[in-house]
Amino acid sequence: MFENLSSKLDKAFKTLKGQGRITEINVAQTVKEIRRALIDADVNYKVAKSVTDNVLQTALGKEVLIAVKPGELLTKIVFDELTQLMGSEKVDINLKGDLAVILVAGLQGSGKTTFCSKLALMLKKQGRSVMLAACDIYRPAAINQLQVLGEQVGVDVYAEPDNKDAVQIAINAMAKAKSLGRKILIVDTAGRLAVDEQMMQEIANVKAAIKPSETLFVVDAMTGQDAVNTAKAFNDRLNFDGVVLTKLDGDSRGGAALSIRAVVEKPIKYIGTGEKPEALDVFYPDRMAQRILGMGDVISLVERAQQAFDEDESKRINKKIQQNKFDFNDFLSQLDQVKKMGNIKDLIGMIPGAGKLVADVDLDNSSFKPIEAIIQSMTQYERANPDSINGSRRKRIAAGSGRSVQEVNNLLKQFDEMRKMMRKFSGLQGKMPKLPFMGK
Questions:
Q1: Which of 130, 196, 256, 348: CA 20 to 30 A from 234?
Q2: Which domains does the chain carry?
Q3: End-to-end Cα spacing for the chain
Q4: Does pTM top 0.85 for this prediction?
């Protein structure tokens, strides 16, 4: 999402390259470019001006050490300012009480219902007992959508398809959750195509009736400053506790993420980074600032890996690597785990310095399809015994997968190199599971 902003900020910092020290003249041009980059990213003008004014004031008051270049110092100053702009520290949701009720509001199409299921899965993985409540009584198939998503993540959904009273459904859902011993109830409410009085009143009535411990507003990050304006309108009426930014994997400019905290004065608590149930992250302002400035986000990458990779499976794979028995069945299994972590380009962007290497590359999880097609065209024997794949087998596999013999040869060569590398480093014990795609 922040590719264009990151690129423009990088160019701005380069204007200080070769400068021996920070002066009012050379830093002014850089700050001007930073402000232009922020406004181009759809950041609120007043917010962009405030940020760059603070950066300029801080930079002119800094003494540049011999070991630190002016560009590096300014990058640190901008990092601190962006972190503060987005809230400085992460803010947790309130889950206190015998039954913690989370009310979820937002416009239609913002990803509200999908977020409810993602949050349910995240809390379930933390060992919490969760139930979903379907209180969107207007949108066609909304109840069915939540039921399908609930089944996917293994969480019960309370619904009353024939009841058109959202307030009563929410009250009944609370009673049901308590009777089943659930500790958390996530209430999905109706959205509209635009902010209107009827919608606001209904959500306000639901909130007054169930007295949630947490009210979250879900907003589509791809709508830019419209997202900020909508959040402000909702907050004026609902006084919600936090914001959820969805579709951060889309082609949005990032302005909403940078502006919303300053304008609405409510913290961003979660970010959605894809359609998969696991594609939800807790929002950390400092980590987001690092990603914007191209510093990567190794901590989030490790956390995603730990969530996606099963510990027993990792031990099994490590044992096979040590015995030099890692095969294509294991490779497919690991590939599935990597895909669960999110978009591959987003993952690579979390590695410091790697984001720039793939900035102009059209790369997503569909890039794995040719590899999967080739492996799936192998027999079970061939998958378990890669060294048995001779010339005639390669021709058959190429024909069956719709790929060329050269592509099959390249995959086999890379797989062999990867096995050697993995075995070489299998003795190194680390917290992060081994990711096959890191090899190539």
A1: 130
A2: 3-85 (1.20.120.140), 100-293 (3.40.50.300), 301-439 (1.10.260.30)
A3: 24
A4: no
